[in-house]
């Protein structure tokens, strides 16, 4: 984008009923006639004197220019830094403050060099100065000088100051301005610099310090405003996760089970919940690892803070780090705005990292630092941020095997494995199937407005014999589909994968014929793919049923010769 593409009306929106005008995205704007600002300027001079009136006006202009530069960089993609710098004068003209006619310029952002000379045409400030105060001995475009300094300082990344060597407000034929990154305290321009501030009592060599002190104070206020804005963004995100937590609390009976294996897991979850210890939840896909993570958080001292969920397997490898730690604007192609990471959003609460075994090795290093030091940096940033989150991780993979294969850091594994919790597969807790079927049947009976009052007993017996590779999630989907298709009062459940082996760990033959493990695995994978109609990844896909990452399943299919 170039400065000439910046149009005021395209960025202006008004709501007559609300009494608001917004420009440049969300910024609220006000329309004042120049005459009113002229009266304000007159009152400032009469009340505070020229010195303080100039200081306040300059500081106001500096803050306005500094914020404009940051917002223009935030909302638009400029073709280069020069275009970003030139957008400042363009915005001044669009707002009716002055038109800028650039003359001499020498700008090298990388070297920190900035030297410009320009003429300000139709300066509203010089006009109002003459109208309300008459000709003065000093240059009077105080606000515009501050604006120019603030905008260019933000865009250049260093202090830039402007002086007005000629001003219509003191009877000159034009307003002429010089901006520089370096000033010689003895040069004539600094004398004009002094007049621009109305400080006749200052030695020329001390004049730049007045600007430096005022600019520094203004920047401190702006930096504090940006810190508060970051905090607001974090709180807004936390509200979302807390609302989600409230919705989850509305169904307190969702963790269902009375078998010995399940009770042991629940006891372990309750034990670790009372502390701030890192928890690692392991188990096959569909066993309810996220449900246990939510249980741990909701029974911990942090339950009034958010639980932020991140599925590491659902994110492309290049985006995991930015999702966890956030990124600064321009950190990579497409990073148009700064983004808060999940660790920053979860501050004071818990973060649940699902499928942590899928985390890339380079991200594991930074994650380990969070575990050990509670520190991280946003991608593309240099500021070290602190976090005090409780970490709950989960995986359906064997992390010890991943460590041996060099795909998971051993030190990270030992840091995560402080309190391991294993969620048993459904085939090891068949005593819970009846309770789960009743729960899901009631849930979907109500959702689909059915009139089911009982479950076919033969269906229950078949379910107890089924291996359930997708565990509780598969059972839930099975009941949902059965309730949807049932027309009467008795729920009949048909298993969709009839040829898959029943819950018998000693099963070694197909059609009465002994086969190799490889052939058995191939037949099993082929049957799952047939039943999922070739769907590998995603919800209800073969990878989910088999408890494997989609990439691993594709690799295994290639080795087995499955197409």
Tell me what the CATH architecture of the largest domain is. 2-Layer Sandwich
Distance between the termini: 49 Å
Total beta strands: 20
- The helix/strand class is alpha/beta
Number of domains: 4
CA gyration radius, whole angstroms = 34 Å
What is the 3D shape?
Answer: elongated
Task: Provide a compact summary of the structure.
47% of the residues lie in helices and 15% in strands.
Descriptive overview:
With 563 residues, the chain is of the alpha/beta class. The chain folds into four domains: 30-224, Muramoyl-pentapeptide Carboxypeptidase, domain 2 (2-Layer Sandwich); 251-423, Rossmann fold, CATH 3.40.50; 425-497, Helicase, Ruva Protein, domain 3 (Orthogonal Bundle); 508-563, Arc Repressor Mutant, subunit A. Helix content is 47%, strand content 15%. A five-stranded parallel β-sheet has the order 9-12-15-8-16. It has a four-stranded antiparallel β-sheet with strand order 4-5-7-6. Strands 1-2-3 form a three-stranded antiparallel β-sheet, with no helix packed on it. A hairpin with an 8-residue loop joins strand 13 and strand 14 (385-386). It is elongated, with a radius of gyration of 34 Å. It starts with 11 loop residues before the first strand and ends with a helix.
């Amino acid at each position: 984008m170039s400065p000439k593409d910046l149009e005021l009306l395209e960025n202006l929106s008004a709501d007559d009923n609300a009494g608001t005008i917004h420009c440049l995205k969300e910024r609220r704007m006000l329309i004042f006639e120049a005459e009113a600002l002229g009266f304000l300027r007159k009152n400032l001079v009469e009340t505070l004197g020229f010195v303080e009136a100039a200081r306040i006006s300059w500081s106001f202009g500096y803050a306005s220019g500094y914020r404009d530069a940051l917002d223009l960089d935030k909302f638009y993609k400029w073709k280069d830094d020069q275009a970003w710098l030139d957008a400042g004068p363009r915005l001044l003209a669009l707002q009716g403050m002055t038109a800028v006619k650039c003359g001499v310029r020498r700008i090298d952002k990388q070297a920190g060099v900035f030297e410009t000379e320009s003429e300000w045409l139709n300066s509203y400030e010089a006009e109002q100065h003459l109208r309300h105060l008459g000709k003065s001995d000093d240059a009077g475009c105080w606000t515009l000088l501050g604006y120019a300094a603030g905008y260019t300082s933000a865009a250049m990344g260093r202090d830039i100051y402007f002086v007005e060597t000629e001003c219509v407000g003191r009877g000159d034929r034009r307003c002429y301005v010089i901006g520089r990154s370096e000033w010689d305290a003895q040069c004539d321009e600094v004398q004009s610099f002094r007049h621009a501030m109305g400080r006749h009592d200052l030695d020329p060599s001390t004049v730049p310090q007045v600007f430096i002190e005022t600019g520094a104070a203004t920047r401190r206020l702006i930096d504090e405003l940006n810190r508060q804005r970051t905090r607001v963004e974090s709180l807004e995100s936390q509200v979302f996760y807390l609302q989600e937590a409230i919705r989850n609390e509305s169904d307190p009976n969702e963790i269902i089970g009375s078998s010995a294996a399940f009770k042991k897991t629940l006891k372990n979850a309750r034990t670790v919940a009372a502390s701030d210890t890192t928890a690692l939840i392991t188990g096959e896909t569909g066993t309810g690892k996220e449900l246990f993570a939510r249980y741990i958080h909701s029974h911990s001292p942090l339950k009034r803070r958010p639980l932020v969920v991140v599925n590491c397997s659902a994110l492309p490898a290049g985006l995991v780090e930015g999702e966890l730690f956030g990124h600064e604007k321009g950190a990579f192609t497409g990073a148009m705005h700064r983004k808060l990471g999940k660790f920053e959003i979860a501050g004071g609460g818990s973060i649940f990292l699902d499928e942590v075994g899928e985390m890339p090795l380079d991200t594991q290093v930074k994650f380990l630092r969070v575990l050990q030091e509670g520190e991280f940096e946003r991608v593309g940033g240099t500021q070290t941020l602190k976090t005090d989150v409780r970490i709950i991780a989960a995986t359906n993979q064997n992390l010890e095997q991943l460590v041996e294969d060099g795909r998971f850091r051993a030190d990270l594994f030992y840091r995560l494995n402080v309190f391991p919790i294993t969620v048993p597969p459904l085939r090891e807790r068949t005593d819970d199937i009846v309770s789960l079927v009743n729960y899901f049947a009631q849930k979907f009976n109500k959702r689909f407005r059915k009139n089911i009052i009982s479950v076919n007993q033969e269906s229950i017996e078949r379910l107890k014999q089924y291996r359930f590779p997708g565990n509780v999630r598969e059972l839930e989907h099975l009941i949902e589909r059965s309730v949807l298709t049932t027309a009467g009062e008795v729920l009949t459940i048909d298993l969709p994968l009839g040829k898959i082996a029943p819950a018998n760990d000693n099963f070694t033959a197909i059609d009465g014929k002994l086969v190799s493990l490889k052939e058995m695995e191939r037949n099993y994978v082929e049957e799952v793919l047939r039943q999922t109609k070739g769907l590998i990844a995603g919800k209800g896909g073969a990878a989910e049923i088999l408890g494997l990452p989609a990439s691993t399943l594709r690799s295994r299919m290639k080795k087995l010769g499955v197409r």
